[in-house]
Amino acid sequence: MIKTYFLQARHWQLCVLMVTPYAVYKLTGFGHNPIDWGFLLLYFLLVTLGWLYSVGSTANDKLDPQFKMPLLYFQLATLVPFIYLPIVVFWVLAPMSRGEIQQPPQELIFIHFATLFAVVYCIWYTAKQFTTLRNNQQSSFSDYYLAFMGFWFGFFGVWFLQPKISELFYPTKPGN
Questions:
Q1: Rg for the chain (alpha carbons), in Å?
Q2: How far is residue 107's CA from residue 147's CA, in Å, rounded to a whole number?
Q3: pTM
Q4: pLDDT digits over 101-148, tens only?
Q5: In angstroms, how far is the first alpha carbon of the chain from the final one?
Q6: CA atoms of 5 and 29, how far apart (whole Å)
Q7: Closest CA to 93 of 34, 25, 38
Q8: What is the C-alpha separation between 107 and 126, in angstroms, rounded?
Q9: How far apart are the C-alpha atoms of 124 and 58, rounded to whole Å?
């Protein structure tokens, strides 16, 4: 049901969902302490990674067997930011806001880059599988770099990608 929403949603609906945490942060007092900020980031991750996962996994399911990629790595990469978020909020930001520590632990850099790698992997997987499904042939980076950039820049890319996504997975019938 959630995958269906992300695949059928209008571009402006997804854009509003992606921009909402920023608007809440800027226009209200919510999000100005580590726990509130963590909730806003959690919401953003649910929307953005939910969209990426919906497109990537559905495209992979619809591909011919020779074009499919292992879904397990994609699923694990999608979970990594949700593991990273509580680590940062409770191990770093909350203690720093209380004055218990002065700077983030050095080990955090490795966790941070692992999380960045996981997010880039999610974007790459989604762009590759989506483009392969659209073209019905194996795609190289030169074929899907525009989709990659669109997924990377989320709320800008959604304006260009979501109409194509909706049309690919839920084509309109003539006369509708």
A1: 18
A2: 33
A3: 0.91
A4: 998 889 899 999 999 999 999 999 999 999 999 999 998 898 999 999
A5: 22
A6: 30
A7: 34
A8: 29
A9: 15
CA 10, CA 24: separation in Å to the nearest integer?
22
**Which two three-digit tokens encode residue 165?**
């996504």
Q: Residue 21, CB half-sphere, CA atoms under 13 Å: how many? A: 18
- Reading the block at residue 112, the tokens are 């941070």
Angle at 58 between CA 14 and CA 2, to 5 degrees: 45
Among 58, 106, 108, 118, residue whose Cα is nearest residue 87? 108
CA distances from 123 to 87, 153, 160 (A): 23, 10, 15
What tokens were used for 123? 């974007």
